[in-house]
DNA sequence: TTTCTAACA
DNA sequence: TGTTAGTA
């Protein structure tokens, strides 16, 4: 059975908590595939003290991209490369924006 | 829930 | 190579 719904306020997208069965249902894939993706280094979900995987909303979005890229014909290694580049690119954008106007509203205030 | 293993396309 | 299914 799935984990607790977790009373997340949505304040931390990289810290949401989903059980693997919930994520597998969301993506329409088996739990074994999610473990395979982790094994391939496509993502690294958090673990509870007991070793149960906890997927964040960020991880779910990442997994959606994984499925998309897999459907495009890439293998797991290729998906990992793309995800790495995309992650890197997003970070580069952040730094560029920050360098352009230091007082830019990052999120609030 | 976790892991591993076997089989299939 | 990736997915699926069954097992402990």
UniProtKB/TrEMBL annotation:
<protein>
    <submittedName>
        <fullName>MerR HTH family regulatory protein</fullName>
    </submittedName>
</protein>
<dbReference type="InterPro" id="IPR009061">
    <property type="entry name" value="DNA-bd_dom_put_sf"/>
</dbReference>
<dbReference type="GO" id="GO:0003700">
    <property type="term" value="F:DNA-binding transcription factor activity"/>
</dbReference>
<dbReference type="Pfam" id="PF13411">
    <property type="entry name" value="MerR_1"/>
</dbReference>
<dbReference type="GO" id="GO:0003677">
    <property type="term" value="F:DNA binding"/>
</dbReference>
<dbReference type="InterPro" id="IPR000551">
    <property type="entry name" value="MerR-type_HTH_dom"/>
</dbReference>
<dbReference type="InterPro" id="IPR047057">
    <property type="entry name" value="MerR_fam"/>
</dbReference>
<feature type="domain" description="HTH merR-type">
    <location>
        <begin position="17"/>
        <end position="85"/>
    </location>
</feature>
<keyword id="KW-0238">DNA-binding</keyword>
